[in-house]
UniProtKB/TrEMBL annotation:
Top-level division of the source organism's lineage: Eukaryota
Protein keywords: Amino-acid biosynthesis, Aromatic amino acid biosynthesis, Transferase
Entry similarity comment: Belongs to the class-I DAHP synthase family.
Enzyme nomenclature, EC number: 2.5.1.54
Entry's Gene Ontology molecular function annotations: 3-deoxy-7-phosphoheptulonate synthase activity
Protein name: 3-deoxy-7-phosphoheptulonate synthase
Alphabetical list of Pfam families matching this protein: DAHP_synth_1
Entry function: Stereospecific condensation of phosphoenolpyruvate (PEP) and D-erythrose-4-phosphate (E4P) giving rise to 3-deoxy-D-arabino-heptulosonate-7-phosphate (DAHP).
Location of the DAHP synthetase I/KDSA domain: 45-153
Enzymatic class: transferase
Pathway: Metabolic intermediate biosynthesis; chorismate biosynthesis; chorismate from D-erythrose 4-phosphate and phosphoenolpyruvate: step 1/7
Catalytic activity: D-erythrose 4-phosphate + phosphoenolpyruvate + H2O = 7-phospho-2-dehydro-3-deoxy-D-arabino-heptonate + phosphate
Length: 199
């Protein structure tokens, strides 16, 4: 029997937990949902000119240590409360470095920092961290990502932005994300067919 040469670099194949199952495993409770809903509504009002406050997205470039992220959120919470009349402060969270060719690939992609790329574990850690920051600290989080798979696994709402402008917003239903803007459709196409040329 001839050797199989198409899988010489594959050690194992481990399917990822489907997004709906991950959300069910680590559900968002009422307290966390209220935090997210209130900030989402406030940001919507600000971005549409119906609230004079300034929207401020602030946070570390990338997060790998969940304890450091919690500490950052704990320090941000009193500032958020003190400046609430002037600013709507949300915490920026970035779990990946997709364009990094050498070195750290991000919490989601390599949570153990050992090249094992246990993405399923990284997604569970990230989802749990987001839930804890929302629930325990009342701090809302904006996830910045270029990966639609991450959006499907961690989020219930997506906003597509270009040059600081919100092009569209959509609710996420299971693994489905319906976007109608040209950029939104391009993101979906790239996630579905990553190696096709863009016309």
């Amino acid at each position: 029997m001839p050797p199989h040469t198409d899988d010489l670099r594959i050690r194992t194949i481990e399917p990822l937990t489907p997004p709906a199952q991950l959300l069910a495993m680590l559900p968002c409770d009422d307290e966390a949902s209220d935090t997210v809903s209130a900030a989402r509504a406030a940001l919507h009002q600000i971005l549409h000119g119906r609230d004079d406050r300034l929207a401020v997205v602030v946070g570390p470039c990338s997060i790998h240590d969940p304890h450091a992220a919690i500490e950052y959120a704990q320090r941000l919470k009193p500032l958020r409360d003190a400046l609430a009349g002037e600013l709507e402060i949300v915490m920026r969270v970035y779990f990946e470095k997709p364009r990094t060719t050498v070195g750290w690939k991000g919490l989601i992609n390599d949570p153990d920092l050992d090249g094992s790329f246990r993405i399923d574990k990284g997604l569970r850690i990230a989802r749990g961290l987001l839930r804890d920051i929302n629930k325990r600290l009342g701090v809302t989080i904006v996830i910045v990502t270029h990966e639609l798979a991450v959006v499907r696994a961690l989020c219930r709402h997506v906003a597509v932005m270009e040059n600081g402008q919100v092009l569209e917003q959509a609710e996420i239903s299971g693994a489905n994300v319906h976007l109608s803007s040209a950029l939104g459709r391009e993101l979906i196409r790239e996630a579905t067919h990553p190696y096709e040329e863009v016309a």
